[in-house]
Design brief:
Two copies of one chain form a homodimer. With 316 residues, chain A is an alpha/beta fold. Chain A has two domains: 186 residues, inorganic pyrophosphatase (n-terminal core); 123 residues, Diaminopimelate Epimerase, Chain A, domain 1. Chain A has ten helices and eleven strands. In chain A, α2 runs parallel beside α3 and α4 packs parallel to α6. The two termini of chain A are 36 Å apart.
Chain lengths: 316, 316
């Protein structure tokens, strides 16, 4: 574990940076990567972003005004990547990462130097602190990347990880010229017709357990095909079951090609989502965690509900 | 029109305050009223809040630790009330208001002294500025009232009225001990089963017009009865149609007892919602406005779509 000033030294003393994102890239890993890329280019370094897998189209604006640098020898920085397994298609970089910057306290990534600030709502908050220490002026391009990381990882300043600092970072980014309204509209307030359709179908599967404290929804491959939904349309679906009054554990199950279910757990009222998912070798944060469960729908759901019930009861 | 320091003088030089909210009270009028009530009591004044109509139950926490003061002679302050017609059941106060504090630039309320700050996202932001000028310490009780006003009037920091200042006010309130996560969860992330049901039914009525740029949904009295929905369950329904990709005008029609439709218009991409509603003697902001339209469902919808089409085309 290193501190901020050591991380700043490493960024100052190297020249050719490849910045890696995690698989199924989200707003924080992408926003952090492109912000850091701009920052490094602004202090005269070569830098490029290696996106893991396909970048959802709605994030395209993050790449505006990025100059594509080409180089051989690389200094490798990971942003928001909490474990080797999250390198996905970039797995050839496992063990080769020089600097890891992240906000997940549970981080287990293999890297020469590790900067983790678990009290940051988003990795993008850490990138902002590094930019200040590097003396970089926050341009509009940097601002929109950092704002994107912060707003997406906090569900538009709604999740429990949001702090006073988060709001102040957002304020500084708006002052630096970022159009927060546009970004929030694209991220939270625009739904494709396919998305509306899959949401409607998922809502219809909702069942309640543990005296209404646990709600479960699911999607099948067939539903996704019918709605003509893509991966991108599925974002935010997992926040639906927990929204119901009285529900402290919301579970969303997504059927995978191999018949297993990819599971998202969202909790409130002090119930620990991570503890539920750990029972299935998954993990995450207090309020949001994930895992994969084998078995048919009914069996997998029963296992999940039993795990949720135990954690709910221990929480009393 | 008066300025802040004159408003502060009026608050300092009077003693018995009745603070009025607008009808169908929302988070900003209630949060502003209870914040101001705490502030005045904290500087030794008598103060009470007169809520117009019934206060939705989920706002109950705003009243915590309020001391009920009783007095005869009143100095009357209105918060977030933009017109005499919005006094509803408090209509006996029309013409008797001593100080009006509001953020609606279109304000037409009859009052002796009027403080309007149209660049504030919420009236609660103005109350915070007044508290600072009065030298009042922001207690946890004040903080949660102000945070509630700010977060509800900006749709959790998402609407176009959100500024850097809005985020800094939120940050200060969190620092003062307000639990923003709890408030946002209650305001935005908790839906009753009736709400889920009326939302599902309303979504099913969605129709598209003007090449997919205008979407309309409606609710009937019958639907509301079937879903067992109360007024409180209808909040946020009007944001649904505009959320669809490509839609710049989202219209929500709610059937009233007299057969007319109460209409909410939400817009984006520079289309002015207020201009659409003005055609039906309504009004509001650039991005959100309201009006009432007579006629059966089909006729009322056709009139609204025609008005929307005209404004969309003028906007090109």
């Amino acid at each position: 574990m290193i501190n901020r000033s050591k991380a700043v030294d490493l960024l100052r003393n190297n020249n050719n940076f490849s910045i890696l994102t995690h698989k199924s890239p989200d707003g924080d890993t992408l926003g952090s990567a492109y912000a850091l890329c701009h920052i490094l280019q602004d202090i005269g370094k070569n830098a490029r972003v290696l996106v893991c897998g396909e970048m959802p189209k709605r994030y395209d604006y993050l790449r505006e005004n990025i100059i594509e640098n080409d180089f051989l020898e690389e200094y490798i920085v990971s942003v928001d990547i909490a474990a080797d397994s999250l390198l996905g298609q970039l797995e050839s970089y496992i063990g080769k990462i020089n600097l890891c910057i992240d906000h997940h306290p549970s981080n287990t990534l293999t890297a020469d130097n590790i900067l983790i600030e678990g009290d940051s709502a988003a990795t993008a908050e850490i990138i902002y602190e590094l930019a200040k220490l590097l003396g970089v002026k926050i341009t509009k391009d940097i601002a929109k990347c950092i704002f994107t990381g912060v707003t997406t990882d906090t569900g538009c300043f709604r999740f429990a990880n949001t702090t006073a600092k988060t709001h102040r970072v957002a304020a500084d980014m708006i002052d630096a010229g970022c159009d927060g309204t546009y970004i929030n509209r694209v991220m939270f307030d625009t739904k494709s017709r396919s998305r509306l359709e899959i949401e409607r179908m998922a809502r219809e599967t909702m069942k309640f357990f543990v005296d209404g404290q646990c709600a479960v929804i699911y999607t099948t491959l067939e539903m996704i095909e019918k709605a003509n939904a893509i991966d991108d349309d599925m974002e935010g679906i997992s926040s639906i079951p927990r929204q119901v009054e009285g529900v402290s554990v919301g579970i969303t199950m997504r059927e995978q090609e191999d018949g297993s279910y990819k599971v998202s757990v969202r909790t409130s009222d002090g119930v620990n989502a991570s503890q539920i998912c750990q029972k299935f070798d998954g993990g995450g944060h207090q309020g949001a965690a994930g895992c994969t469960v084998e078995g048919g729908l009914e069996e997998a759901r029963a296992k999940l509900v039993a795990a949720a019930e135990e954690i709910i009861k221990n929480n009393k």
